[in-house]
Amino acid sequence: MQAVSVKQNTSIATIKDMIAERMDCAAFTSWIAPLKFEISDKVLVLTAENQFSLDYISGVYGTLLKDVAAEFGLELVIVRGNAVTSIANDNNVQSYAPAINDVCESVAFDAFIPSEENAFVLSAAKKIASAAVSFSPLFIYGPAGCGKTLLANCIKSESKNVVMMTGGQFVSELIRNLQKHTIFAFKDYCRNCDTFILDDVQALAGKRVVMDEFLQLVIELRNAGKNIVLTSSAAPNNLTGFDRHAQSLLASGLVADITAPNAMVKRTMLIRAGVKSDVADALANRIACDGHMVAGVANKIKTYTELMGCNVTLDTAEHLLSDTLEKFKTPIAMVKSICEKLGVAYDAICGSGRARALVLARQIIMVVLKNSTRLSLSEIGQYVGNRDHATVMYSIKQIEKLKETDLVLSAQISQLIAECK
After folding, report:
1. How far apart are CA 301 and CA 277, in angstroms?
2. What is the topology classification, in CATH, of domain 331-420?
3. CB environment 389-406: b (16+ within 10 A), e (fewer)
4. How many Å separate Cα 390 from the centre of its chain?
5. Which of 275, 326, 261 is nearest to 303 (CA)?
6. What's the pLDDT at 93?
7. DSSP H or E stretch at residue 305
8. Which runs of E-coded beta strand occur in 81-189?
9. Per-residue model confidence as pLDDT tens digits over 291-346
10. For the sheet containing 43-48, what is the strand order?
11. Looking at the chain, which residues constitute the CATH 3.30.300.180 domain(s)?
12. HEC string of 130-154?
């Protein structure tokens, strides 16, 4: 009897080794190693811990497993064990317990201040929160500080049975459960919801095992009719570290961009935080278009008011936020800055000199002012030596012609315009 047992154990070990040789190491560790192997009456019985893993292993690795079993003269049977949310590990039963502490407060959609540009993404978010959508996943992308996480939290607060985590949390949780051999229970935790939200999906870039597991999760959730919400700093097609298959899957639902807060949104954010309206009006155009930055300014003003026991005036705000506020760019400051970059003297630009390089520089300055300010042509002429309206118009036309054939000049002017805005 003991000899038979030793022979069976040896066969199982050999079978596992052969399967491992024919599979990706990460896939074997994730899917096959946790299975229970038994040999009974010339049948190799593999026991999965839940229906999800049984279906996935049968569909993806069934043929490979049958071929290996056949080489040992065995038939293959994959069955489901009795456990639902636990998994066997060296005869010790373990269950999944989230290491994620959910401390986010409930956030209503009213907390998100919409601009005209963000009306579409806000409507899509409300629709998916009401569970009345035909698109999934909803992929929201935009720069840092535009409100992606806030909108995701709004969806979470307005939805039922939600699992939400960041991309970094998903990576750490998946790795932790791979090491603890509770990966199937973790997957069940992610699947047993009505809405799954992953914030900052770009955190998965370059992590092959995590990416494979995540994409399979997205497919399973979508096929089950569940809602999926993903946020990212870039559109699916621009995500680095994601292959074409991953990009196409992430873009298969509804892709919506979210823009940075404009002056109206920043003003509203400041007023909601308790900043006086006149101060908010003055600061709105001088804070970077970043919601995190606006929140920081509001917190600083609020804290100052509480500690000093007085309201913050505009002069006080100027001093208090000197390290944060953007400096006003006056037309004269712009002209002097461009002169420095072009290597010409400001006095020469305003003078009567007609040297070719000087005339070209003067014309470039006129074009930059026209495209980066709201100055009229007559006003632009005043800042380059009191040139008249007709001279400015002629100069702008000359530069536009040159830009059509001189790509270097065109790129240089575009850069100067961007710096002056």
Report:
1. 13
2. Chromosomal Replication Initiator Protein Dnaa; Chain: A; (1.10.1750)
3. eebbeebbeebeebbeee
4. 49
5. 275
6. 44
7. helix 291-308
8. 86-89, 92-95, 138-141, 162-166
9. 888 888 888 888 988 898 888 888 888 788 877 776 556 788 788 889 988 888 88
10. 36-39, 43-48, 75-80
11. 2-89
12. CCCCCCCCEEEECCCCCCHHHHHHH
Does CATH place domain 111-257 in 3.40.50.300?
Answer: yes
Q: Are 57 and 36 in contact (CB under 8 A)?
A: no
Q: Name the fold adopted by 2-89.
A: GMP Synthetase; Chain A, domain 3 (3.30.300)
Which of 404, 334, 326 is closest to 373 using CA atoms? 334
Phi, psi of 139 (to 5 degrees): -110, 110
φ and ψ of 410, to 5 deg: -60, -45
Least confident piece of the model among 8-17, 191-200, 241-250, 287-296: 8-17
Contacts for 297 with CB less than 8 Å, ≥ 6 apart = 270, 283, 287, 321, 324
**Backbone dihedral region for residue 40 (phi beyond 0: left; psi -120 to 50: alpha; all else: beta):** beta
Side chain identity at 177, as an amino acid letter?
N
Cβ distance 294 to 275 under 8 Å?
no
Tokens at 53, concatenated: 């893993």
Of 117, 97, 84, give the one whose Cα is nearest residue 262. Answer: 117
Residues of the chain with CATH 3.40.50.300: 111-257
In whole angstroms, what is the distance from residue 121 CA to residue 385 CA? Answer: 48
